[in-house]
Specification:
CATH architecture of the largest domain: 3-Layer(aba) Sandwich
Order of helices and strands: EEHEHEHEHEHHHHHHH
Radius of gyration: 17 Å
Shape: globular
Number of strands: 6
CATH class of the largest domain: Alpha Beta
Helix content: 40-55%
Number of domains: 2
CATH topology of the largest domain: Rossmann fold
Strand content: 5-15%
Length: about 240
């Protein structure tokens, strides 16, 4: 079942969000949790990964909350397909457990991060806003650990990805953007990057946005993943 709940017009600056979960009660809970937020618009919902692809083709949401375990196509497979077909759409995984092995696979598939299904309402809303504001929804220490694991197996992974086809060209990063990217790799927030480089928070955010755009990804987490994949930041230096 794919439901389109998009209004004919939506305000500028809204996060256009879709919910994908095979449990109707879970979808309803998330709908109720997010419906009153004036910067979030729920544009549709689906009950499995294949329906999520159909939803994306019709609605092009900014962000999908994607369940892990679903019939027909699970969350990982659906995320990979979504990111290949609609790279501008961010995906945040819905999971019951903080399993590092799974989360690492989710990053490889293209996810921006994850949120626990039983997290408080405020935490889920904050995670949505963090992704749309160019921040990572993951705990910085966990993000750093996952990226370290990604870096450890990076050369093999990069070779496998390269064998699938030519790596898309990316626009060159400036020296300052490379500095910012190195701090992003360490799990630094925009505020921490601003403090480390003695620049304003707005300037740090602009640098992060430029990096995301130049690397052709939808969010901060995938910017670091792409940089590791391309060798823009050194694997040996990863945290």
């Amino acid at each position: 079942m794919v439901e389109d709940t998009m209004s004919p017009e939506h305000g500028r600056g809204l996060t256009r969000l879709a919910i994908v979960d095979d449990h109707e009660l879970a979808r309803e809970s998330l709908q109720n949790m997010l419906a009153d937020e004036n910067d979030i618009e729920i544009v549709g919902e689906a009950s499995n990964g294949r329906q999520a692809l159909l939803l994306c083709s019709r609605l092009r949401p900014d962000l999908i909350l994607m369940d892990v375990r679903m019939p027909e196509m699970d969350g990982l497979a659906a995320t990979k397909e979504v990111k290949q077909r609609y790279p501008e759409t961010s995906v945040m995984m819905l999971t019951m457990h903080e399993n590092p092995d799974y989360l690492l696979e989710a990053l490889k598939a293209g996810a921006a991060g994850y949120v626990l299904k039983d997290a408080p309402q405020e935490e889920i809303i904050e995670a949505v806003r963090r992704v749309r504001n160019g921040e990572s929804p993951m705990d910085p220490e966990l993000a750093a650990r996952l990226l370290r694991r990604l870096a450890t197996e990076g050369e093999m992974w990069r070779g496998a990805r390269s064998s699938q086809g030519a790596t898309p060209a990316v626009e060159s990063l400036t020296p300052r953007e490379l500095e910012v990217l190195g701090l992003m790799k360490l799990g630094r927030t925009n505020r921490q990057i601003a403090a480390d480089l003695v620049i304003s928070l707005g300037t740090a955010k602009n640098h992060v946005e430029h990096i995301i755009a130049k690397l052709g990804v939808s969010d901060r987490t995938q910017a670091v993943v792409r940089a590791l994949e391309l060798g823009i930041v050194g694997f040996a230096e990863a945290p």
